[in-house]
Fold this sequence. Notes:
Blueprint: E1 2-12, H1 22-30, E2 46-51, E3 56-61, E4 77-78, E5 81-82, H2 123-127, E6 133-143, H3 148-162, H4 164-181
Antiparallel strand pairs: 1-6, 2-3, 4-5
Bound molecules: iron/sulfur cluster (SF4) (2 copies).
Amino acid sequence: xxxxxxxxxxxxxxxxxxxxxxxxxxxxxxxxxxxxxxxxxxxxxxxxxxxxxxxxxxxxxxxxxxxxxxxxxxxxxxxxxxxxxxxxxxxxxxxxxxxxxxxxxxxxxxxxxxxxxxxxxxxxxxxxxxxxxxxxxxxxxxxxxxxxxxxxxxxxxxxxxxxxxxxxxxxxxxxxxxxxxx
Length: 182
Ligand code: SF4
Ligand code: SF4
C-alpha cells in the first residue's frame, strides 16, 4: 500500500547571495508575536554567515535541536578564509547561541513558513531579490502501514473464504512461532 508525501526544498546558491540579510529580516518579522510586529534577526530561522571583505555570504537554515554537543568539530576554509568551528552547521545545540530565541533560549527551527497556508513560497525565498534562494517541491511515493480498518477488511475476507475457526487457528500458530523467533 502506498501514499505520497511532499518534499519541500530550498536550493541555496551561495554565489548569488550578496549578504543583504532580507531573509533574516522577514523571517524574524513573520515569527514575531503578534506576526509582523517586530524585526529581530536573532529570532530568524535563517542566518547569513558573513565575511564582507572576502565577499562571501552563506545562508544557513535552522535545523534540528540536539541536547548533546558533537564529539568533534568542523572547520571550513573557503577562498583562503577560515570560518569559525561549526559556522555552517544547522543544528541547535549547547555549544553556541545560534538559532535560539534570544529571551527564552528556546530552540528555533525553520518551519518552511507552513503556519500561513496562503503563502505560495517561503517568505525568505520571496524576499531574496538576488535569487540566491529557490524553492522547489516534489512528491515521493511512501509505503503506508495498513490501518485498523484495512486489517478488519482483510480478516473478514479470509474468514469468508476459510471460516473464522481456521483464520483464528492460523493467527494463534503464527503468534506462537513469532514469539519463539523473537
Ligand atoms: S535575502 Fe538572499 S541575497 Fe540577501 S542575504 Fe538572504 S540569501 Fe543572501
Ligand atoms: S522558510 Fe520561512 S521559517 Fe524557514 S527560514 Fe525561510 S522565512 Fe524562516
